[in-house]
Design goal:
Largest sheet: 5 strands, mixed
Order of helices and strands: HEEEEHEEEEEHHHHHHHHHHH
Oligomer: single chain
Radius of gyration: 23 Å
Strand content: 5-15%
Helix content: 40-55%
Number of helices: 13
Shape: globular
Length: about 375
């Protein structure tokens, strides 16, 4: 019976989604455009015809504790989020909007983004009007933590804004940390190099990023966050052995730091080393599943390819529950194939319907609809 995708098909499925999730890995130093996002973006220069807009504030941990390392700041306007920059080691930030990802792309419906619109014509003619940030909020991004959101508060003029304090609250009680305590012990010069690497990563200046990270770990060999970020950089360049070495250095410096373990798991997935992938993804899920829910998705795929269907189904169901943003709707296709192993035709058909509800324009939508009908027929025949 061939109503479901073969094991080879699942291998192809996972290989196809691998590049998407590598960047969505939610690391402590979040990946740069092209390294961590599902849509690659080329950094854009600020619009020189408009007044620069600056936003300032600070980020603290719940309870008032300071941050152990810099975190990313995102702007959300009309439901669209854009990463704007990073805090310093003290949690303070002052960011010029649009330097990295383009300010006026925040809302595709914003008339100011339309060439020839009255707002844009006014800006180009030299009448520098303040941007409308009334629908915008700001948040911090750190894997395993939930961020409060804050709105704009003016601080004297319409081109400098103070958003106040953003609070990060830890999610869950996992033993794995997404920030390394070794960072707090790093000397000043090493921390400065790490901050420069973060800025270079945001601007997609990979050579500068690599240079600063190597400087950071040279000055402070126990700098686990810098080692892990260097592993990310090598992995992006497909320098697998260099990436593996950097991740292992990070783990040697801080065994409770979960980020490099996830990096090693992604390498195992890429290499189709299913035993190692199953072990590492299970480890990551046990250490901090709130920070890395995708560990369950990859664990399900690895166990499926090992013909360990029960743990594969358990992990797939956990991931489907956690994937509220539907980053991997194809987990439903994996579940469908797993349910076929138990001759649960009705359940397998429902999973395909779940997938098509999220991806109605999938390239193989017609094939999947036909498969659903076949499964429904099998389910009906089984009842008779």
């Amino acid at each position: 019976m061939t109503t479901g995708p073969s094991r080879l098909g699942i291998c192809i499925l996972i290989a196809g989604t691998f590049l998407l999730q590598t960047a969505a890995a939610q690391r402590t130093a979040p990946p740069s455009p092209g390294r961590g996002s599902t849509t690659s973006r080329t950094p854009t220069s600020p619009d020189t015809t408009t007044q620069p807009v600056f936003v300032a504030g600070r980020v603290i941990l719940d309870g008032g504790a300071p941050l152990p390392e810099p975190v990313a700041i995102e702007r959300i306007c009309s439901g669209v989020s854009r990463r704007e920059g990073y805090t310093d080691f003290k949690g303070q930030f002052q960011i010029q909007l649009g330097t990295n990802l383009g300010f006026q792309d925040a809302s595709e419906n914003d008339p100011r983004t339309t060439p020839g619109s009255p707002a844009r014509t006014t800006a180009q003619s030299g009448n520098r009007r303040p941007p409308d940030l009334s629908a915008c909020e700001f948040r911090a991004v750190l894997a395993g933590f939930q961020s409060s959101t804050v709105s704009i508060r003016t601080s004297g003029d319409m081109f400098q804004f103070d958003v106040g304090t953003i609070v990060l609250k830890r999610m869950g009680e996992g033993r794995g940390a997404t920030v390394s305590l070794t960072t707090m012990s790093a000397p000043k010069d090493a921390r400065q190099a790490f901050e420069k690497a973060l800025r270079a990563m945001q601007e997609n200046r990979l050579e500068v990023e690599e240079k600063e990270l190597e400087k950071a770990v040279r000055l402070y060999p126990q700098f686990a966050a810098a080692w892990s970020m260097l592993g990310d950089l090598h992995h992006q360049r497909n320098q697998i052995e260099e990436a593996r070495t950097a991740y292992k250095q990070a783990l040697a410096a801080d065994p409770q730091y979960v980020n490099p373990s996830f990096g090693l798991a992604l390498i195992a997935i890429q290499e189709k080393n299913w035993e190692e992938a199953a072990r590492l993804t299970a480890l990551v899920a046990a250490m901090n599943s709130y920070a890395y829910p995708a560990a369950y998705f990859y664990n399900a795929a690895a166990n499926y390819n090992l013909a360990k269907y029960e743990p594969a189904e358990e992990s797939a169901r956990k991931y489907k529950t956690l994937d509220t943003e539907h980053k991997h709707p194809d987990v439903a296709l994996l579940l469908s194939n797993l349910l076929l192993q138990k001759n649960d035709y009705a359940g397998a058909a429902q999973q395909i319907r779940d997938y098509l509800a999220l991806v109605p324009n999938a390239p193989n939508a017609e094939e999947l609809k036909a498969r659903t009908k076949s499964l429904e027929d099998l389910s009906l025949a089984k009842k008779q």
